[in-house]
Amino acid sequence: MSVFNAKDFDRHEQVVFCHDPATGLKAIIAIHNRNLGPALGGCRMYPYADDEEALRDVLRLSRGMTYKSALAGLPLGGGKSVIIGDPFKHKSDSLMRAMGRFIESLGGRYIGAEDSGTGVEDLKQMAKVTSHVAGIRERRTSAGPRDGDPSPSTAYGTFVGIRAVVQHALGGNSLDDVKVAIQGMGHVGIHLAEMLHNAGAKLWVSDPVEARLEDARKRFDATPVALDEIYDQEVDVFSPCAMGASINDATIPRLKARIVAGSANNQLDEERHAVELHRRGMLYAPDYVINAGGIIDVYFEIQGDDEMAEMQKLDEIGATLSEIFVEAEERGETTVEVADRIAERRFLAPGVKERGNVAAMA
C-alpha cells in the first residue's frame, strides 16, 4: 500500500501507522497541514473492511480538518486518527492507552479528540499517557455542568448553518414547517433533531438503532424511516449526520431536497459530486464549514473557557456560509470551490498558490 500514490493523499505532512501487538491496536494518524497551528482532530474507531479503506478515511478526514479550522478562523492545523476495530467488541482501556502513547510520540504535532466510536472516557485513558488530547475536562456553562463531549456544539453549529442555508435557498427567517430528513441519530443527530424540533421544523429520521428512532418519535414527533429510504423523502433539507460518502452517484438522483446540510464529515463521495448537486439546483453547505462546532468547542476548552466568545464563534458559521453562497452564485461556482479557495488563502504557506483544490508551488 503506497501512501504517496493513494488517491486521497494531498501533500500530507506525516502519516503514521501504529501497531501494538499486546493490545491488538492497529491505527493510522494523519497530519495534513500545520501552517496555522498544531493538527487537532478526532480519533475515530471503526470496523473498516480493510487497511485501504481506513487509510482513505483518515486522509480525507485530516485534510478536511485543515480546511475546517481555517474557515472557522482558528489557529489550528488539520489532523485525524483512526483505530481499526469494532468499538463495541474490540475497545479496551489498555488499547486506548496504547493509542495515547503513539499520540505522545508525535510531540504535540497532533492533538486527539473524540470522534465516532470513541468518547470522553476513552480520551481520559489516553490522557494517562499523553497530554496531547482534548475534550476531556468537565466544564461549567450557563446551562449547567457538562463533560468534554463536543457533540452539543457540533449540533448547534449545524443548526445555525441549516438556518442560514434555508434562509438563502427558501427565504424567510423561520424554520417553522421546514421539512428535514436527518440521516443518523447519534450524539450529534439527536441534539440537532431537538433544536430543529424546538424551532418548528418537521422531521424524518433514520438510524440503525431502533431505540434511537423511537426516542426521536416520542420526543420530537419525528417520522422514522428505513435506512435506505431516507434519501427518497419529500423534504426541504437532507441532513447527513452519520458516516461519510452518503452523497454519491447512487443517492443524488434520489434526493428530492433543495438543500444538503448536515454534520457528517466527507459527505461527498468524490469532489465531482459537488458539481452534480450544483447542476441539479441543490444548495450544498460544505461539511467542513457547517460542522465546525466541535473543533470550536475543543479549541475553547484548550484556551480556557469563554462561553460568550465560543457562542459568537459558533454563530459565525451561519455568516460564513452566507458569504460562500453569495460568492458561489456571483461566480457560477460550486460552494465547495468557493470554500476551498477561502481556506487555502488562509493556510497555504508563502510561495504556494491555489490551483483548484490542489496546492502548487509558485
State the low-pLDDT regions, or none.
354-362
Radius of gyration: 19 Å
CATH fold category name of the largest domain:
Rossmann fold
Summarize model confidence as the mean pLDDT. Answer: 92
Estimate the strand proportion: 15-25%
Instruction: Give the oligomeric state of the chains in this entry, treating copies of one chain as homo and distinct chains as hetero.
Output: single chain
Please describe what this structure looks like:
This protein has 362 residues and is α/β, with parallel strands linked by helices. It folds into two domains: 14-136, Leucine Dehydrogenase, chain A, domain 1 (Rossmann fold); 151-292 and 321-341, Rossmann fold (3-Layer(aba) Sandwich), CATH 3.40.50. The chain has helices spanning 51-71, 93-105, 120-126, 151-170, 187-198, 210-220, 272-279, 287-290, 293-303, 307-331, 335-347, and strands at residues 14-20, 25-33, 39-46, 77-84, 110-114, 139-141, 144-146, 179-183, 202-206, 223-224, 237-240, 259-260, 283-284, 352-355, 358-361. The strands form four sheets. It has a six-stranded parallel beta sheet with strand order 10-9-8-11-12-13, with helices on both faces. Strands 1-2-4-3-5 form a five-stranded mixed beta sheet, with helices on both faces. A two-stranded antiparallel sheet has the order 6-7. Helix 4 crosses helix 5.
